[in-house]
Design brief:
By secondary structure, this protein is an alpha/beta fold. 46% of the residues lie in helices and 15% in strands. It has helices at residues 8-24, 34-37, 40-47, 49-59, 64-86, 102-105, 121-133, 154-159, 182-194, 215-230, 241-250, 261-268; strands at residues 91-95, 114-119, 142-146, 169-173, 201-207, 253-259, 282-289. Strands 3-2-1-4-5-7-6 form a seven-stranded mixed sheet, with helices on both faces. Strand 1, helix 6 and strand 2 form a beta-alpha-beta unit. Helix 3 crosses helix 4 (49-59). The two termini are 35 Å apart.
Length: 292
């Protein structure tokens, strides 16, 4: 991440969500604020059907699997959040929130849900400037917590926030595990477990080792890895699903679902045009905290 610039992958995620809103009517996941939250460069491309056709539809077509991951994981976690609030959850914690706009889109049926966003201070500053430029601001019961995850744990960051460790929460940790070491991933999971109330839930995405999938699928993942490496955020961690489940169980999490690419496709993309499919090897993990 460059000084005074948001994460490049956070910008790309906002672009994908904006594209879905503008050109697909938010069929899988609708985010009307994503356009304002992405970079000026992506906004120029999205405004022009010609530029969009050249850059997104043509040049970036081989990377469309990444778009499916972004949309599918966002839809899944917010579907689970809606269910959890009906069952008594009162907090939503976005770890590495990036350009997520939930605080602006919060449905009225969620009532007094408390939202806590954790992210690097540079990304948060850029996000605030982009919102201010269009006259929007985060309102309601929202706490934006600046944190440097290289020096501070999730639990430490939440200590000075509006977060209530005695109340149930849904933790969203999307688009982050790839860029951390395996050791850091497991340390972060343990930190989240240490400050969860029993019944709290966590949803995050991850990538399996390339050697565990067939050559064609691993080629798709290599192209996606190449793209994020080109923007300065290379994939580091590849997690074995069995080991991940075992280590989650050790720290008090019970697996609710470990969604494969095929399951995500069946849930959200079966009726979409050919090509918008989640790459095999990308998964979404959903766990519930049972206690130490």
């Amino acid at each position: 991440m460059k000084d005074q610039q948001a994460s490049a992958t956070a910008d790309m995620t906002a672009m994908i969500r904006a594209h879905e809103h503008i050109y697909a009517g938010g069929e899988v996941f609708d985010d009307p604020f994503a356009f304002a939250l992405t970079s000026p460069g992506w906004r120029r491309i999205l405004r022009s059907r010609v530029a969009k056709a050249i850059v997104i539809d043509a040049l970036l077509r081989p990377f469309r699997g990444g778009a499916a991951v972004v949309l599918g994981r966002a839809r899944y976690v917010e579907d689970q959040l809606l269910r959890a609030t009906k069952e008594g959850c009162t907090q939503y914690v976005l770890v590495g929130a990036g350009m997520d706009s939930f605080a602006l889109r919060q449905p009225s049926e969620l009532g007094t849900l408390k939202v806590i966003e954790l992210d690097h201070p540079t990304t948060q500053a850029v996000k605030r400037r982009r919102l201010a430029s269009i006259g929007d601001e985060v309102t309601g019961d929202v706490d934006l917590v600046a944190v440097d995850f290289e020096t501070e744990s999730v639990a430490e960051a939440l200590e000075g926030s509006a977060y209530d460790p005695a109340a149930r929460a849904v933790f969203c940790w999307m688009g982050v595990t790839y860029y951390l070491t395996e050791e850091t991933v497991y340390s972060a999971l343990a930190s989240m477990a240490s400050c969860c109330a029993p019944g709290s839930e966590l949803v995050f995405d991850y990538q399996v080792p390339a050697g565990s999938i067939d050559e064609q699928d691993s080629g798709v993942l290599r192209r996606l890895d190449w793209l994020v490496a080109k923007v300065g955020e290379p994939v580091i961690a590849e997690l074995d699903p069995n080991e991940l489940s075992e280590r989650l169980n050790r720290i008090g999490f019970v697996v609710v679902a470990d969604l494969s690419a095929r399951v995500l496709d069946q849930m959200y993309f079966e009726h979409r045009e050919a090509g918008l499919r989640v790459p095999n090897g990308m998964r979404v993990m959903h766990v519930r905290y049972a206690g130490p």
